[in-house]
Amino acid sequence: MSSPAPINPTISSTPIQVQPPVQTLAVPQLQRRNYQDFPGRNKFFCGGRFMTSREYWAFLVALVLIVGPSVLFGIFTCPFLWDNVHPAVPIVFCYLFVLSFASMIKTSWTDPGIIPRDLDPTPEFFDDQGSAYYGESEWSHVPVQKEVKIRDNTWALRYCDTCKLYRPPRASHCRQCDNCVENEDHHCIWLNNCIGKRNYRPFFTFIVTATFLCLFVIVFSIVHLLLIVRDHSGNITFITVFHAAPVSFVLAIVCFLLLWMVGGLTFYHCSLIFKGVTTHEQLRASIINSKYPGISANPFNKGSPAQNMIHVLCRPQPKR
């Protein structure tokens, strides 16, 4: 029986073409900025460059109280003062208004010094036997306080459960903004922002210039009325003066009422700066002294009102 003939495979001379892998273009993903994921109650705009709180109605009321009288004074009173007193009077008024308005906007739209969150996500806690350990338990939810020394005085650092960090000295958690703010003085509802380390200087500039602006409007509104009386040689009644300059008459009364509010606030903050304390520290000291008389040491006092003022108003501004 003959064996089958072997099958000789035929080798094709045509080369095998290998298809190159298909390259897909990676679509770049837009990076989210930090403010877009920030859990606080602030509002950000202009790409996160500006921020404010949520009490818009109060800020609009304060804006009207500043801009409204200033615009009326500039339209109805300044032309008379330009012609009958001196052109420098309206120019000084414009300078005070611009400085007050700019510092108001800067205070309201600036980061007050918010401390980043999750700096200490796992603090120490006390167990049922008083021993410290990491992590919460069913016995205790109060973190261990850390202590630092400032000028030989011990300062306790409290833990913020919301921001997950040990607050630095002079920092407080603002309930309205839901943030821990460095050197927080108070939350100003009328400026719609916290007042802290980064915006205290423009805040102080605002209240000081607003006080001088009220005084300026009161004085020169009265000057306007007195010059009208002088031009009539004294033979004029109250009704005639009122009809001749009703806006100046009303502005003198309105700005006098505003002066009591903004002027009192300016005087109060001047006293705080001279003592080297914040509003929170002043209120806490009053409560502590009422319960424990004699405890009034302030480790942040520089020793003199001038040095305290230089430290508060001339210190460098930290990064936001």
UniProtKB/TrEMBL annotation:
Catalytic class of the enzyme: transferase
Cellular location(s): Endomembrane system
GO molecular function, one term: protein-cysteine S-palmitoyltransferase activity
Topology class, membrane: Multi-pass membrane protein
Protein EC: 2.3.1.225
A GO CC annotation given for this chain: Golgi apparatus
Membrane-spanning parts: 57-82, 88-105, 203-229, 249-274
GO terms, biological process: protein targeting to membrane
Pfam families: DHHC
InterPro entries referenced in this protein's UniProt entry, alphabetically: Palmitoyltrfase_DHHC, PFA4/ZDH16/20/ERF2-like
Domain Palmitoyltransferase DHHC, chain residue ranges per copy: 157-284
Key words, A-Z: Acyltransferase, Lipoprotein, Membrane, Palmitate, Transferase, Transmembrane, Transmembrane helix
Catalytic activity: L-cysteinyl-[protein] + hexadecanoyl-CoA = S-hexadecanoyl-L-cysteinyl-[protein] + CoA
Family: Belongs to the DHHC palmitoyltransferase family. ERF2/ZDHHC9 subfamily.
Domain observations: The DHHC domain is required for palmitoyltransferase activity.
Entry protein name: Palmitoyltransferase
The species this protein was found in: Phycomyces blakesleeanus (strain ATCC 8743b / DSM 1359 / FGSC 10004 / NBRC 33097 / NRRL 1555)
